Amino acid sequence: MSPVLLPADMRRRVWRRCCQVGLVAVGVVGSVQVASAQTVQRYSDPKDDFPISAAVQVPAGAETVYVSGLGPAPDRASGTTTAEQTRSALDQISAALGYFGMTMQDVVQMHVYLVADPRLGHMDFDGMMQAYRARFRSAFPARTVIEVPHLTNPHWLVEIDVVASRNDMNKKRFPAK
Question: CDD domains attached here (predicted)?
């Protein structure tokens, strides 16, 4: 694919846009690579019904947003279960993605950090999965769940970070108002 030379005013607009979102798609000085019409591809083992993708392929030129680790909303952080805190953290992530005109269906990768629930004496993987399955029924992200000794907020049982990506140019663009 050869680069397409854009007029100077359009290069400035593209550069500003890329800087706002944190993406730079410059192939050679003053040119931008044209994105292909491919879509995000998710790969899973057809014999396995576990709700994650084994791999996700994101095409070049796709819009990508990285959401830092979020825990439950402050009003739900104390005295709740892993399932409730996971639901709250996913709500927080959904709101963050909404700012960019994205949804949870655009999530391509997820890292879940769990601490031991003091009531159980171990991490509550089943509680996390209960909330996760309620939110993800299809378009599963590649996902890793990691048990950690503690999180920055001592009341949190879960923290989640995600990467979301899409290349559907008909959806809302940054910033979604």
Answer: YjgF_YER057c_UK114_like_3
- The predicted structure's pLDDT at residue 74: 84
The pLDDT confidence band at residue 170, using thresholds 50, 70 and 90, is: very low
SS3 content of the chain, % helix, strand, coil (to 5): 30, 25, 45
Q: What is the 3-state secondary structure (H, E, C) of 59-106?
A: CCCCEEEEEEEECCCHHHCCCCCHHHHHHHHHHHHHHHHHHCCCCHHH
Cα 82 to Cα 88: distance, rounded to the nearest angstrom? 10
Q: How far apart are CA 10 and CA 114, in angstroms?
A: 46
Least Cα distance to 64 among 144, 149, 162, 163 occurs for: 163
> For position 97, what pLDDT does the model report?
96
Domains of the chain: 1-34 (no CATH), 38-166 (3.30.1330.40)
Q: Specify the 3-state DSSP secondary structure of 14.
A: helix
Q: How far apart are CA 115 and CA 50, in angstroms?
A: 22
Asked whether 97 and 164 are in contact (CB, 8 A), the reply is: yes
